[in-house]
Structures are given as structure tokens and as C-alpha cells.
Amino acid sequence: MEKDLKQELIENLKKGFNVVVIGKSGWDKTSAIKEVAESLGYKILSVYASNPNDLGYDPQVLINRESDPKNIKFYEKFIKEGRNIPPEWANIALNNPGNKFLLNLHYIEECDTDTLDVWKTLITKKTICGEHLGNVVVCAEYSIFDNATPKTTTEEWNFFDKAIILESHNEDSKRAAMEHLRNEWFSKINNEEFFDLLIENAMMFESPRLVETYILKNLHTLIQKPGSEKIYRVDSFYRKYKSLLTDEAKENSRKYEDVLQRMAEIAYNIIKG
Question: Which of 16, 22, 92, 242 is most buried, judged by most C-beta within 10 A?
Fold first, then answer.
């Protein structure tokens, strides 16, 4: 997945296309976008698509944020005067016309239809709050969660120049994601066998993001806390790691017993020192 995604990003961003990447949450969409953008000389502007502060205020766009008591005082004079307020990220691009920027929009599926219209204007007309942003290309992320209903569908975001759909997360893609985590975390958790087990058994875990958050970050935190071995035992790691398995792996957990046990033993030995 990672190689294919990066290649597609390179091909489309070189053309100046606005791109949306659609796929399951936790599959390194952000890191791939960041790496490619930097390699192509873009300066990255990163925002959450549904955050009102990143939309600015445009009296020509019907957004009912001014009815929010928290916003009334702030927006009152601008509403009366009919003035535009570009968001902070847009001002950065406007004030640096000699640079090219990539606006990385996170979690666009959380946007309502009014908010979607603001981003549509930017993507199709390169305009927000009446300001033209000719030096900004947009790369958005539509994240799919197994047990959540998005506020907007992928079809409602069909105005991008290119949609990259990560339809399947097969063994090669999971192994590639785990390799990426090894590169990111090996200097902090220096154990070859531990990472080899992660990569060789990549299919048993639900997502790389869960592995990073609840295995690697957790282990790194415990390494830095003297006496952690008195609180966390081998069975503590084992239960935690088992909880991160895919539903299919949980149904066949006996298949992974030895791997989980060995990973738990290594983790305990690491914090024991």
C-alpha cells in the first residue's frame, strides 16, 4: 500500500492536482502525504477539516456558526460590516506567494454539508473567504471507521481532481506499514526480534495506528519510567497485545499464542533492563 500510495501522490501532486485519499483509519495516509509533499518542495499546512477556526468567515457562505454563543461576540462586527476573515493557514499562504503549499485536510468525513461547501469552493476555485490561493494544493484524507457513520459520504467529495482509494489492506500493505513503524521507532525501542515479530505477523493486528499507540508508544513510555516492571508484568503486555488483534485473529487466537507470549516477554525484559 505505502509504495503504491506514494507513487500515486507523486504523480498527481506533480500535476498540481487536488487529491483525496480514502481508506481505513490508521493506515499511514498522513505520513505518506507528508513524506511526498516534503520531497516535492511543498510547505505543509495541516488542519482538521471540520474545525470552524480553519474555515474563516465569509458572509457569502451560509454557515450558521455565528449563532453559536461562543462566536457571536467575535463575529458580530464582521457580520455587520460584511467583511471576510481568512483563516490563519490561508494568511500564511497569502503572505508567502513565492512558496508552494500543500493543505493537508484531516477527517473530511466529519464535515457537515455547509462546511463541505467551503472546502469545495477552495478546491474548485482556489478561493476561501474571497481570497485567491493560487499557491495552495489540497490533499485530503477521508478516514473509514468500522463502527462509525460519517457525516458526509465519499460521493459528496467527488470534486477533487483525483481520488485515491485504498480498497484493501492485504499482507504486503500491512508489512509495509510495520516496516515504516520499525524505521520510526527502532532508535527508541532497540530490539530486532520484537520488530521482526511485528512485521512477520502484521496480519494479526487491526491497524498500524493501534500498534504505534498501544504497543510502541506505551513501551517507550514505560522504558522511561524506572520501576515500571513492578507494575507491568508479562501477562499485562500479553492481554494488551491480544486486545489489538483483528476480529478474525481473535477467533483464531490460539494461532498467535506463541507470538503474543514472546512479544510480551520481550517487552517485559526491555523495561526490566
Answer: 22
